[in-house]
Structures
1.
Amino acid sequence: MSYQYKLDMTMMFAIHDALRRELERIARVTARVDEDPRHVLSTAVGWELFKKFLQVHHRSEDVTVWPVMQRELAGRPDELALLDAMEAEHAVIDPLLDDIDAALADRASGLERLGGLVDTLHTGLSGHLKHEEAEALELMDRTMTQEEWMTFSATQRDGIGDYAHRYLPWILDEMDAARAASILAHIPDPLRAAYEAEWRDAYASLDLWGPRKGTPAA
């Protein structure tokens, strides 16, 4: 029997799946041969959104999840070792975004470094998401209160800020209809109305992984 969460993990799993989806898209852009992938990726709206939402997600965990759990799990070395591993994985993954941006801006040797950096990001983030889902989410559920979990969710919302009109369509991008409907059913009415009236179509009109018009090639 699968573990039954007391905390609502719906958006956690949805965010993880959205990040996995974007990793595949980034890998495809990097493998392009018809155009310099540095130019495509450096100007792509999809890369901007991926970075923003990954950084917000990780920072929210770093601030509102791991410290709470460390206090609650004091004196339990096995559980604390898992939290240390989660933080260490963040510390490897997050700087890769800056490393990739540096390669995108490097006219001399950036193209040669880009593929390896994207591979490292793909491997590291995919492994982290799998590790978190296999071990850390259950520990979160057993350790954190509903109030603490709501604080984590609120911190993510605050971090998203001006990107709110992109976040929900980004989460639901390519999601099957039944799962998307289930998520929308839990969204506050004003946000769901904005999504259905404006955000969904505006997001669909974006060329997420094409070079932005009017930007010079690297």
Note: The CA atoms of residues 30 and 115 lie 6 Å apart.
2.
Amino acid sequence: MAKAGPAAERVVRAGAELADEIGFEQVTPSALARHLGVRTASLYSHVKNAHDLKTKIALLALEELADRASAALAGRAGKDALSAFADAYRDYAFQHPGRFAAAQFRLDADAAAASAGVRHSQMMRAILRGYDLTETQQTHAVRLLGSVFSGYVGLEAAGGFSHSAPASQESWTEILGALDALLRNWPSPA
């Protein structure tokens, strides 16, 4: 059985650092053992298997990202809050590409319900309450914003915007402005 505690936390942090170096999909217990200079078998006292290791890295990434987003949102509302939230995600993705990929790892229902993913949803809904959207519209908006943020960051990280003007930052600012305008004028349900 995998143990929880400081040593297990160090193993997960080392796995997250390795994910940033080599990519989240490449992280395995054997790759992590090589990175740490230990035998693979010694890791199994802290993680059950590769899926458990990836789940724990995902949970760490969600927690870190929620903490950053929360700090960025403090005292902000409306477009300012939307931009701060989006920028926190984008900055995290560039500083920690493997962890950002881990934050999108599919968790089982129990792990997802107990994760910081719940905080992400709560923060996004708090931002959206300032736009006077219904509960259903908020759900649609959360999905839209998540898709735009992840999609833009993924394309940008892959170099998709590096070969043309204007600069990616200018497009990002314009897109956030367009999202703010859409949220302010969300179409009424038919």
Note: The mean pLDDT is 93.
3.
Amino acid sequence: MGVSTSSPDKGIALVTVDFPPVNALPVQGWYDLADALRAAGRDPEIRCVVLAAEGRGFNAGVDIKEMQRDTGHTALVGANRGCYEAFAAVYECEVPVVAAVNGFCLGGGIGLVGNADAIVASEDATFGLPELDRGALGAATHLARLVPQHLMRALYYTSRTATAAELHAHGSVWRVVPRAELRAAALELAAEIAKKDGYLIRLAKAAINGIDPVDVRRSYRFEQGFTFEANLSGVADRVRDTFGKGESA
């Protein structure tokens, strides 16, 4: 349980997330993930990182129950900062990051895959931001990297999800495979990347980030300000308390 790192093949680091039952990460989990990604990127022997998850789905976002147990804003601030660091660690990893997405990829999961360099998904994978149903905001920055602008807005406002096949049609998912083949397909892409010169692939990652039209760190941080405003106003607690109860705000 937690975040682990292994090296299944030469030049590849596999960072695996495992927080049962649904990979909704607690505050410390986001920081642990950030640390693992940064450490893998710093390793001179690594030329590509695969980010994967065990269990029913890739990521269900933050641990809502952890926030509900907190009578103040400590958990909220911790989750904001932890997500910020984890998303940035994917984007700023010194080598390319391939996300292997199975099942649901929601909330914070979008922040991770939206900042990844490539995505391989299983046929049952779904992607979305149910933030408005959870009393939160954020990660529209990253959803906008996966789908066109108007679709991003419609998905965000409705809390609907998109399938792996739909994202593949938009060009943001590299390959869609049966779930049993997901890990192998992601490692296959990583192995192709890892064949490149280690120094050159790092220069390529830095160069591509440098020409990005959107500063993802600043853009996401701007969104987080509205998340905190929603909490200060009380509307976040009101909506969040209905989460999992089949009620609407």
Note: The radius of gyration is 17 Å.
